[in-house]
Structure formats: C-alpha cells, structure tokens
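Hi, here's the filled form for the chain we discussed.

Project: internal
Contact: R.S.
Residues: 701
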Amino acid sequence: MADESTVDEKAQLKAELAEPAVDDDPKFNDNVENAKFLTNGGDVKVEVETSSSGGASFTGLGKEELLQYANDPFWKKVRVILFILFWVGWIAMLAAAIVIIVLAPRCPHRPDLKWYDKQASYQVYPKSFKDTNKPGKAEPGEGVGDLQGIISELEDGHFQDLGVETLYINSFYKSGGVDNGMDVVDYKDVEPSLGTLAHIRKLRKETKDKMRLVVDFIPNHTSRNHTWFVSSQNKQDPYTDYYVWRPCTKGGAMPNNWLSVYGGSAWEYDDLRGECYLHTFLKEQPDLNLMNEDVRKEMKDVLSFWLKEGIDGFHVRNAEYLVENMTLGNELASGSGSVMTYESLIHDHTTHQPESFELLQEWRAVLDTAANKPGREKALIVTVDTDMNTTMKYYETNGKSGATYVRMSPITNYDKNGLATHLKDRIQEVAVDDVHRKIWMLDNENLDRIASLIGDEYMKALLAVQILLPGVSSSYYGDEIAMKNGVPATPSKDPVSKLPGQKNRDAFRTPMQWSSEQPNAGFTDPTFMPWIPLGTNYKTNNVQHAKAYHSKHSIMNTFKQLVLLASNESIQFGKTVVSVLKDNNDVFWMTRKAEGFSGYLVIINLGDSPFASNFKEAKISNTLMHVFHSDGDLIEGDMDLSKRADTDLQAANIPDKVDCPAECLYLVWWRPAHHGSKIYIPLYQPLEEHLAAVVLTTTFS
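And the returned structure, exactly as it came back:
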C-alpha cells in the first residue's frame, strides 16, 4: 500500500500543473528560463530555474512606441529617400538594359543553308574515271572505268584530298550500249561493265555522313530496247501510249517539221507499229510521253527507288525537252543555220513548255516527301541554256517549287580579248541573285574542256571565278589538273559523231590521268586497252605530278585552296559586286561580303601585262590581309592600301631581287620596311606563263 503522504503530494502537484497561476506561467514571467521534469523511481518532481539576475528581460517596443517612431519627421524622410533611391536605381537598370540591347552588336544573320547550298561538287564520268579490273579475272568492262574505281578514291583518296563533299555521277544505268548510258534499258539496274547494284550500295555506305551522292535522272527518253518500248510497238496496254506516236507512212511526209537536236527529222518510222515516234536526240532514244499519267507514275517510282537507296539528289537530264506542244504543228524558221540543222528553227513548240515545269514540281514534291528530317534534304538539279526569264521558271512557277538549282557556266565567250569584260557582263546578268542560286560549271562530258578552249594558263583564274561566285561549283573530273581534250577513239565510241556536222565527244571523255605510268596513266591495268585513248600529255599532266612537283604552285593546289576558301560565310551567302578596273579592262575584280563577316576582294588579271591599282573603286577598307594567291605564295600580315598606288611601274623602284616577267600581276601598296623606308611589293611572281588570281580579305562594309 502506498504511503498516503506520497499520494497527497502527487494530487497537489497535479492540481497545480493543471491550473497554473497567470503570474507563474513561463510565457509571462521574465524570470523563468527552464522547467524540468525529474523522475526518481515512481516520484515525479518539477524543478524550475529562474534567471540569476532576477530582473525583467526586454520584450520589444509596444504599439504606442512604434507609432511614435513612425510619425517622427526624421524617419519619414528616411523612408521617402529610400523609396526614391529604389525606383531611381530600378529605372536606371532598365534604361541600361535597353541601351545595351539596342547598341550591342547583334549576332550576324546566317541563312538556313542546306548541304546543296554549301558543298562543292565533283562530276565523275564513270567509264573514264578509274578501272579496277585485274588481268585473269573474267569480269566485264576491261579498260572501262567502274563504280569500284570511284569507291577506291573515297577513303583518304582523291575526293578527300580535293575537299569536295558532293559526288555527282553520270549515268550508270543498264543501257542499250548506243549512247554511253543515256539510252536506258532499266532504270533500276546498273550497267554490268560498271558494276552492280551492290556497288551502288557499297558506294552509299562508304560515303555515309561524309559525302552526298547526286546521280543522273533521264526521264526524256529510253532505249528502243526497253521493255516499255517493245510493248508500245505492239500496242500492248498499258504501254500503248508510253511514247509519243503519230500517224505517218513509210517514206512519206513526217507529222511535222520538228528536228532532232543532232539534226534531221525528230520523227522515225517504225515498221512494227506502222507509225512514227518522236526522238529529240538519237533515233535509238524514243521520247517518253510524259503527259501520260502511267508514265509519270513510272518516273516517280524510279525516283522513289533510288531515294530508298540513299541517293541525295538528281540531275534531270534534258529538262528543257521533256514535253512538247503537239497541237501547234510546224515550228518557224529562225533565219540562221542551214536547212535541217537544229538551229534553223525556233523551238517554241518543243522546249521550255509549262508542262515541263509542272513535271519538275511533281518530282520536287517526291524529293521533299523523302526529306523527312533535317540534314536529309534532297536536291533536284537541271542544266538549261536559255534567257534568265525562262531560267527562273525552272525554279518556281505558280507558287510551286521546281528545281533546287540550275547549272550554268560563268563564261560563254572564250575569246581572250575582252574576257574580263565578258565575265563581268555574264555574271551581272545571271549570278547576282541571292534567291535563285546557281551551280557553276566550266565544262562537262558534252563540252570541250575549258583548258583546251582557253588555255591552261587561264585555269587558275577561271577556277577562282567558278568556285567563289554566289552558289556552288561543279567541277568535271580532270579540271583540277587542267586536262585537255584528247584524241577520239577509232572507231568512235560516240554515235553522235557519225551524224553530219556533230562533234566527236570522245575527246571530252578521255580517261583520268592519275600518273605518268605507261601506257595507261594509272587509269587501268597496263595490259588492258582503255576504252578511249588517253590524253597525249598524261606523262607531265597528272594527279601524281601535281602532288609531287612544285605542288604549292600546281593548279590542283589552287583548286584545293579555293574549295577551302569557299567555306567562309561571305563566299557562301554574301552579296556580290563584280566589275573591271576603269583604267585596265583586262583586270576583273569581285567583292563578296556577308553582313557581320569579313569580306573578300577577288582580283584576276586576264591580260598579259603587269598593272598597279589601289582598288579604291571596290570601296574597300585600307587594311587588307592576303588569303589566297594562285602562285601559292602569301604575304604575311596586314597590308595598308591607304597610300596611292603608283601606276608607273618603272617609277615604283622595284628591287633588283624581284624576278617578275611581263605576265606578272601587281597589286601595289606601300608599307614600311624594317629600316623605315617604303618599298614596292609585287604580289605575284608567276610560274611559267600562268596568270594570277588573288584574294584579299577585309572588314569593309
């Protein structure tokens, strides 16, 4: 039994804790600091500790006291000052931010350029590029270039060395063997002498993420051996109207006076069908009826097939001839050219028809559908030779996009007299267009090589024009070493050469000159006979020689430097101004400038005499830096053009150590030498007879 005194104490303590006195509550007692509950067995004790001082602690200002301070004039003034300072500071920071935004230099505008807007392309004629066949192997195409030859130059090969990133391959389709791949028998197979579909897939695999592939698309005609044509001859549906047929009689009058591009009637009588078919080119190449919906579907299917194989773009061959206006009858005489030559008629019924533009728009839609992710854009390219108003229709009509790019040449008149003025006029007419950019080519498989037309001494200068113009360049294989026309095969491999008044195109398609190795210059095994004879100068004009002998001064090195230079912003999308010097019309100059980026002054001497100029008419700044010279030598550091150029070379006091013959290009400026005097600096000391191209960069506006 518990002690009664203990129970009484617990009850008393419980009552005291349950009803504490207000004065004893710690919240109101300044002396209470801690309350502790102590246990000792079954007993509970509370120990209360008070402050040792026994005085009351400060609990803050009361309401009345705070109001006294709030109404005090001094504190009112302090609050007003702080309020004003806050808003003044806030407004000042806002104003400073606005000033910074307005006055700070903006990031320069970069247009949304796709791969085809930036990359230099290299055109390969596959039969003439490189043959990889080996003796003793039963493989088709001995002495004929093949797809494996192209593949062999991919990894650390010629294309990478040149810096080109787009590969354009001429027709490799299975053909009838008449016109070197242009007479297609099967659009979805490869000519056996060139390789197989597996080679195309290997080529795509090897170039993945490294190069873009553009191939020929030949929708205008097929071979007479194509199954479509054989079925159309026999009027087998649905192929009956796959080609353009018209009633006629054997030996009788043709349906109209239309002419083939190669001369003679564009109509050929077919014994089996008893009608005439249209052929814009050779009679072995009947024209497809592209107004037939089934044919259109077939062509879209061809595009889709190669898009699935990873092809990035298509060059539409013969785009200006795709559709004819069959209702208009005879074409009018042009008043030029002899009878039955193509030039003797005005071809307003058979070229540049509105339906041709519509076809391009349909094919562009197929390509755009395949471009389902950024970086997978597809290009549709055409080559046409017409006035600029008509050329613009290939890009767009009725608000619909057609060709992505049009290929054309920056030069059409190869007369060396007045060449600089011709370049200026031609470029001003067709090039200075920021929207409809061009692909610039100097030659191709159907044209004389530029080095033969104008001389290899002009190659560096013309390469500078081609590669640095607005748009992109497309270089035909061999241009990088200034290959010239070769000797046609005997008998000729070009069927066109057998027609009256036509050139033999064999000369433009001679094998690539890789080395001085005899007898085939590294193109094919020495035991094979090349399909076309090599150029006669291959022993000294070849890729190996360009790399090994004075490579810094070679045309190929100039090509590589220019391709690299073309990757700069002002060259890619800058505005263009072209002109010739007022006091020397043999000197062509061009400026390329994108807002916010350094500009470029391109100077080309197409004459045979030295000159001096400060190029103030180009409206450039005084300080320039030398970034390219066709001779390969650069003068380091900034150059000051503020001093007037001395137009009298004899008065320029040229140092005796400068060896510079008459062909020199002089850009004259003055700058202090180490000893403080001013000296004349020639910019160009030529190799042999090569003329000069110079590029300077500057910050001109």
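Let me know if anything looks off before we file it.
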